[in-house]
Amino acid sequence: MPRLDYTSDCRARLAFEVLANRWDSVVVFTLAENGPLRPRALRARIGGISAKVLNDALRRLESNGLITRQVYAEAPPRVDYELTGAGRALLVPMAAMGEWAARYGDEVLAAQDRFAERRSDQC
User: Above 70 in pLDDT, residue 2?
Assistant: First the structure.
């Protein structure tokens, strides 16, 4: 496996920045499982996301080339969102991150608890 450089101008950091927002990966995954979808259907499938937050995520993902927005000339107007090739390709590293979280999640949460306890003891 080639060594990646994570300096400020490195493209490897782009992958982490693309999904830095917690909802973006949820939208990508939901579109992969159910897409293409209209915003209302997407929001219903995700659950717990406001219309504004979903709209912001859709704009971010579209600007990064991970989804496409298809507008239909209908009354009322209809818009569908679908993953692009780059969006579908992102599912592989997302699955790897999910496997990492399943394996190390308890360890990370325990470390966070220990850190918070140490901080509260210092106050």
Answer: no
